[in-house]
Amino acid sequence: MQELSLHILDIIQNSIAALADLISVEIEEDKGKDSLIISIRDNGRGIPKEYLSQAVDPFYTSRQTRKVGLGLSLLQQAAVQSDGHLDISSEEGKGTEVLAFFKHSHIDRMPLGDIGKTMSVLIIGNPQIDFAYHHRVEGDEFRFDTRSVRGELDGIPLNDPYVIGFIFQEFEGWMTRRNGMLRGGRR
Amino acid sequence: MNLDELKKIREKAKKEMEQRQHGVGVRRVIVGMGTCGIGAGARDVMAALLDELSRKGISDVEVTQTGCAGYCEYEPMVTVIDERGQVIYGKVTPDDAREIVRGHLIEGNILGNLVFERV
């Protein structure tokens, strides 16, 4: 995977498999502090304590279709290779938080990539789940919360063709603004 | 978020929903979104499917996602389920995805060269 936003899409599949109905994604890009922080928090069933230490082991998986579990280990690798690290905390029955830290200016830091497309696909493809997205970049910020969108839509589903167009447009708008702010530097 | 825009969408979408209350059942399109699928390009395939459906105003197709099916080398995989059964497409590109919307979902023609399996 070439973009952190693809890793985010992958990690959130774990939250979906853990039956979360609220998933929060927070991203903070701060060139002044030379940091990029990604937080993914869900209210799914959580990881039992005895398995938590194995969560980033690529040869451990709780699924049946194959014998490897690459999602978290690949994100950890992406963090470590750019002088960062990965923290996972989880409580059974309450949920899980994955926190990834990166050195913003590191030559081996993957670009964030098209996080707008990642979020659009997640929101539209999982209309039964609520997503709270908060992205801060150099003093500007963008929030998209499906709970407030639902409030306005009065029963129209998030995967209605008109709403799909709206979601893509909102995130594309933010990506243009965000890329403009970071122009000249690495993304 | 542009909440005024949402209010306009609500009115338009409601009118259309009322009109299709007595329509046919919902068709489903499922995109493989495991690590293997994502690594092979499933996100852009799904975005292309959704964009094409939205542009064409097709509202009886629900696009969802699933995990790894165990055929990682054929990802990105797209399954179309309609009244004729189930067709699984393999190694789908974003352009193929738009063609699946136009050819399979609108015109009703199965895209033979992309079929991984028919059930």
Share of residues in strands of chain B: 15-25%
The quaternary organization reads as heterodimer
What are the secondary-structure elements of chain A, in order, as H or E?
HEEHHEEHEEHH
- The SSE order of chain B reads HEHHEEEHE
The CATH class label of chain B is Alpha Beta
| Tally of structural domains of chain A | 1
Task: Let me know the largest β-sheet of chain B.
Answer: 5 strands, mixed
Give me the Rg of chain B, rounded.
Answer: 15 Å
Domain count of chain B, please report it: 1
Which shape of chain A, going by the Cα principal axes? globular
CATH superfamily of chain B: Glutaredoxin
| Reported CATH architecture of chain A | 2-Layer Sandwich
Output the CATH homologous superfamily of chain A: Histidine kinase-like ATPase, C-terminal domain
CATH overall fold name of chain B = Glutaredoxin
How many beta-strand runs of chain A? 6
Fraction in beta strands of chain A: 25-35%
Largest sheet of chain A: 6 strands, mixed
Strand segment count of chain B: 5
Explain this structure:
The complex is a heterodimer of chains A (about 190) and B (about 120). Chain A is of the alpha+beta class and about 190 residues long. Chain A has a single domain, classed as Heat Shock Protein 90. Chain A has six helices and six strands. In chain A, strands 3-4-2-1-5-6 form a six-stranded mixed sheet. Chain B has about 120 residues and is an alpha+beta fold. Chain B has one domain: Glutaredoxin, CATH 3.40.30. In chain B, about 45% of the residues lie in helices and about 20% in strands. Chain B contains four helices and five strands. A five-stranded mixed sheet of chain B has the order 2-1-3-4-5, with helices on one face. In chain B, helix 3 packs across helix 4. The longest helix of chain B has 17 residues. Chain B starts with a helix and ends with a strand. The model of chain B has no long low-confidence stretch (mean pLDDT about 90). At the A-B interface, helix 1, helix 4, strand 6, helix 5 and helix 6 of A face helix 1, helix 2, helix 3 and strand 2 of B.
